[in-house]
Write a structure and sequence with these properties.
8 helices, disordered C terminus, 4-stranded antiparallel beta sheet, 35% helix, single chain, globular, Rossmann fold, alpha/beta
């Protein structure tokens, strides 16, 4: 079966620094893949290459079997409609109320009427556990956890085929992080979307992943079922899983 997402020999460098050095990776439809790695391992660069925000220096990115590496204009927009993204910092617009943040892509990107977009926004807010009263608040009036929920509601607003999560629990206390992880896991399971997450938080990775992949020195050094990570047989993976960061060279 054709992978939903496939990377073939993806390379990216900035000046003399090699960040990605021939990444090969395939993500099946409906799979929840978490890409792990220490700080500076290239996780965010890899995600941006998949999203088309960065152009690989070599290799190819395929979505549903189509090479999208060099697409631009309307062709790129068509691919982007398959994506929903929860950004690390939330990336909410402070000048807009919550419902307009959620509906932003529907109105600005797809030309949907405000009334219809607002109705969808309210439904998505309810799905992530926020009441309709939150819709008229500004992002600044929300806690960090609530902002993450709004970001998730925006990510699923257009019913995307693929969801991307960029360090989804960064900045949250352990209890709220677990709440967000559970919400993400439930959302992925209930909607049947393909999900790709990047994180250095093993608790988060275990909660939301069906499969894990470890990125080190610009390459995927191990991948396997989430349940198998403790039996990976890879020294680096074992050190990472057990939080011995002093040995990771990150």
């Amino acid at each position: 079966m054709t992978p939903k997402i496939e990377l073939r020999g993806v390379c990216k460098r900035f000046g003399s620094e090699i960040v990605l050095n021939g990444v090969d990776l395939a993500v099946a439809a409906g799979e929840s893949l978490v890409i792990m790695g220490g700080s500076g391992s290239g996780k965010s660069v890899l995600l941006k290459c998949i999203l088309g925000l960065l152009m690989p220096d070599a290799g190819a990115v395929l979505i549903d079997g189509e090479d999208v590496t060099h697409l631009s204009g309307r062709a790129r927009d068509h691919v982007m409609r398959k994506f929903g993204v929860l950004f690390q910092g939330g990336a909410l617009f402070d000048s807009l109320p919550v419902w307009e943040n959620v509906a932003f892509g529907l109105m600005r990107g797809r030309g949907m009427a405000a009334a219809e977009a607002k109705a969808i926004a309210l439904e998505k807010l309810t799905r992530v556990g926020l009441s309709p009263t939150v819709a008229m608040l500004s992002p600044a009036e929300l806690s960090g956890g609530m902002q993450k929920r709004v970001g998730l509601a925006r990510a699923i607003a257009a019913d995307p085929e693929i969801l991307f999560f960029d360090e989804p629990t960064t900045g949250l206390d352990p209890l709220m992080a677990d709440v967000i992880d559970t919400l993400i896991a439930n959302t992925v399971r209930e909607t049947g979307v393909t999900a790709v997450s990047i994180t250095h938080d093993m608790a988060s990775a275990r909660k939301i992943a069906t499969r894990l992949a470890m990125l080190r020195d610009g390459k995927i050094v191990w991948s396997g079922a989430a349940a198998e990570v403790d039996r990976s047989g890879d020294t680096y993976v074992t050190q990472f899983v057990h939080g011995r960061d002093d040995k990771l060279g990150a």
